Amino acid sequence: MARVRERVEFDLDDPVLVEGLPGVGLVGKIATDHLVDQFDMAYVGSVDCEGLPEVAVYGEGDYTARPPVRLYADEERDLLALQADIPVNRVAAAEFAECVTDWVTDVGATPLYLSGFPDQEDDPAHVPEVFGVATGEGAAVLDEHGIDAPPEQGVVGGPTGALINRADVNDLTGVGIVVESDPQFPDPAASKQLIDKGIEPIADIDIETDTLVEQAEQIRDQKEQLAQRMQQASEEESSQAQSMRMFE
After folding, report:
1. For the chain, which terminus, N or C, has the lower number of CB atoms within 10 Å?
2. Ranges of Low complexity compositional bias (predicted)?
3. Measured in Å, how far apart are the chain's first and last C-alpha atoms?
């Protein structure tokens, strides 16, 4: 049985939850990791689900072992983050999405789902494009912040797609931000666009993102092993947006 286990109490008024599951370019994970680190967000809970690997993760210079899918809070900024160090496989995705969505509803959060759209752009000067999708009243949020609608018909797959689907079923107001990203390697530049164009204005917070580009090589090295595991996983286990033309 899936459940969210809250480890400490926290008090938020009208929070935004940023979802950082691994996917194409690891764009959501890189962005969410950046938030957790920059704001020194407090570890407040974990997601326990039968289909998730029963592993313990630990950080550099830290004795503490923790579950692979964790929740963090920043009371000052009214912010929540879902941080994952492993992919959520297709067996667990539906139960995982239902569990997380029920918890998001209970705490009164507006979920912000992050996904990459595989893009083979070779021009180093190219700025990744960003667009949004919505559930409930989320379209008004996207319009308010000038985030474009999708340029063509498509689908968001993997566990992030399951979360968006569950939000729609529950009539929960949610927003999905999709960015063009490298389909093979960790893409900090695309994560910067997610933050600058989506997370920062919607959550109404100021986030320094220049280091994502300045330290791009270091970030890629840190995330490379996870990126390789994501490539080896099936498409059903990797959160990504795709054009519907890929299914024709």
Report:
1. C
2. 227-248
3. 36
pTM for the full predicted model: 0.88
Structure tokens at 42: 């407090």
Q: Are 130 and 112 in contact (CB under 8 A)?
A: no
Closest CA to 212 of 202, 228, 223, 204: 223
Q: Where are the domains of the chain?
A: 3-7+12-247
pLDDT tens-digit map of 121-174: 666 678 899 999 999 999 999 999 999 999 999 999 999 999 999 999 999 999
